[in-house]
């Protein structure tokens, strides 16, 4: 086991598509564990599947990690680029006797399995070349197989799952190097993790059986076995394996739905890991608290209501500059035009009020509609009903009353209240035509928040447009 070595974790996605939310959580766990201990978080692109790996998918994964705010140390490494090193290790194992040359053909292996199945035996292939005298080796293509132990047990000491035991008779002599000289995934992963100095392998529990087989490679080379931590997968709200039928499964979809990156980090951290009853926290707390013993063994369930709650908490606590940066990222993710300077200048003064209620960035922008539009304000049908002749007359009075006001909330509110009282109306009745004139809607933020954000000149112009 690793004790005093500096912590090194890694995230190793295959570039065959977008970054899945499950992969994003795995990356986050690795990032938190390393960053909380002053260690390194490395990135490896497992691009050995040349038919399916694409540069576009690699860039999509990198972009997803950047959006989520997960920085990595050094440059991302390519697994494919290290194939000669992988082959070198396979040959080294051949030399030290922990691997052997197998000349069995695909047809022979299939015949073995069919016969074993017919006789009710294990179909795990037992190569006749395992202990063959090298002098009997034919001059034909061969694969290099691991000489795995045939008896006893292999125990994976897992930081999440506990000790998991595998009977060695159930683990085959897996191929390390194919007959064309290309390494298999199982060999490449172990060699890369060793060469990168990875001390903790934190990944999905669908790799648990792989760990038992990979341990044999570590042992065959006399290498230090890393700490394994296999985390449960993410399920949908119905408890079934997460898929597209549950909605968004790609990280990019969450960016386009308007969840801030900080909120996603918080939510994903709590998806399968806990620190007491703490639900809402920032990055520094997450780094300080995150540990492998806080990861549960049961699959986590995606819950959009919880995500919205977490998102709202983070939005309310963000600085104005951070909110504006998140809005810019969100608009870019959806292909929408960026905010113009005049829109930013109007929305900024309103952010304090807007972010207190918004759960997502689209919800915030919806409330900020009044700041994003220009004159003449288009009035929605429902709001138009508040602009009868009496209301328009009141708007005219209010325009005159606030013409020379100090433009403070107290003074604006006092002027509106005074005019309302003169007509026997409460502030609520005054607010309806004000909402219509300022935003063209019947549901808006506080009318005084809007007036303060728009400023004297723009507010008076909008009121005059609708005044009778």
UniProtKB/TrEMBL annotation:
Give every Glutamyl/glutaminyl-tRNA synthetase class Ib catalytic domain span. Answer: 7-308
Keywords (alphabetical) are: Aminoacyl-tRNA synthetase, ATP-binding, Cytoplasm, Ligase, Nucleotide-binding, Protein biosynthesis
User: What's the Enzyme Commission number for this chain?
Assistant: 6.1.1.17
Q: Which GO terms describe its molecular function?
A: ATP binding; glutamate-tRNA ligase activity; tRNA binding; zinc ion binding
Top-level enzyme category: ligase
InterPro entries documented for this protein: aa-tRNA-synth_I_cd-bd, aa-tRNA-synth_I_codon-bd_sub2, aa-tRNA-synth_I_CS, aa_tRNA-synth_I_cd-bd_sf, Glu-tRNA-ligase_bac/mito, Glu/Gln-tRNA-synth, Glu/Gln-tRNA-synth_Ib_cat-dom, GluQ/Sye
Subunit structure comment from the entry: Monomer.
From the Swiss-Prot or TrEMBL record, give the protein name: Glutamate--tRNA ligase
**Source species taxonomy:** Bacteria, Pseudomonadati, Pseudomonadota, Alphaproteobacteria, Rhodobacterales
């Amino acid at each position: 086991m690793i004790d005093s070595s500096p912590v090194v974790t890694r995230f190793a996605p295959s570039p065959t598509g977008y970054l899945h939310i499950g992969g994003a959580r795995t990356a986050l766990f690795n990032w938190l564990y390393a960053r909380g201990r002053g260690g390194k978080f490395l990135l490896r692109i497992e691009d050995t599947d040349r038919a399916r790996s694409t540069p576009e998918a690699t860039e999509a994964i990198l972009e997803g990690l950047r959006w989520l705010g997960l920085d990595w140390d050094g440059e991302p490494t390519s697994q494919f680029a290290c194939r000669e090193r992988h082959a070198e290790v396979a040959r080294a194992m051949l030399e030290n006797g922990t691997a052997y040359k197998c000349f069995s053909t695909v047809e022979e292996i299939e015949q073995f399995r069919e016969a074993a199945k017919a006789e009710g035996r294990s179909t795990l292939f037992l190569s006749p070349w395992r202990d063959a005298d090298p002098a009997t080796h034919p001059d034909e293509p061969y694969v290099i197989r691991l000489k795995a132990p045939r008896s006893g047990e292999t125990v994976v000491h897992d930081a999440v799952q506990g000790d998991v035991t595998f009977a060695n008779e159930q683990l085959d002599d897996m191929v390390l190097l194919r007959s064309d000289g290309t390494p298999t995934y199982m060999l490449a992963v172990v060699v890369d993790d060793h060469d990168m100095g990875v001390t903790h392998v934190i990944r999905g529990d669908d790799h648990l059986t792989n760990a038992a087989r990979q341990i044999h490679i570590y042992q065959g080379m006399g290498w230090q076995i890393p700490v394994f931590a296999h985390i449960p997968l993410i399920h949908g709200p119905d408890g079934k394996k997460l898929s597209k039928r549950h909605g968004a499964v790609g990280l990019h979809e969450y960016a386009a739905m308007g969840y801030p990156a900080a909120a996603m980090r918080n939510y994903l951290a709590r998806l399968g890991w806990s620190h007491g009853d703490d639900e809402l926290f920032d990055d520094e707390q997450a780094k300080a608290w995150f540990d492998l013993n806080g990861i549960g063994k049961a699959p986590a369930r995606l819950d959009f209501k919880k995500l919205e709650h977490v998102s709202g908490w983070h939005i309310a606590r963000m600085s104005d500059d951070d909110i504006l940066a998140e809005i810019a990222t969100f608009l870019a993710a959806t292909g929408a035009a960026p905010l113009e300077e005049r829109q930013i200048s109007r929305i900024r003064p309103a952010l304090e009020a807007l972010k207190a209620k918004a759960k997502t960035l689209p919800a915030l922008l919806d409330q900020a509609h009044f700041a994003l539009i220009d004159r003449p304000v288009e009035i929605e049908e429902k709001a138009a009903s508040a602009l009868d002749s009496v209301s328009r007359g009141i708007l005219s009075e209010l325009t005159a009353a606030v013409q020379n006001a100090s433009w403070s909330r107290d003074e604006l509110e006092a002027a509106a209240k005074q005019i309302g009282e003169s007509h026997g109306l409460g502030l609520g009745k005054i607010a309806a035509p004000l909402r219509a004139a300022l935003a063209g809607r019947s549901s808006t933020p506080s009318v005084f928040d809007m007036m303060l954000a728009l400023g004297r000149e723009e507010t008076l112009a909008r009121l005059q447009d609708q005044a009778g």
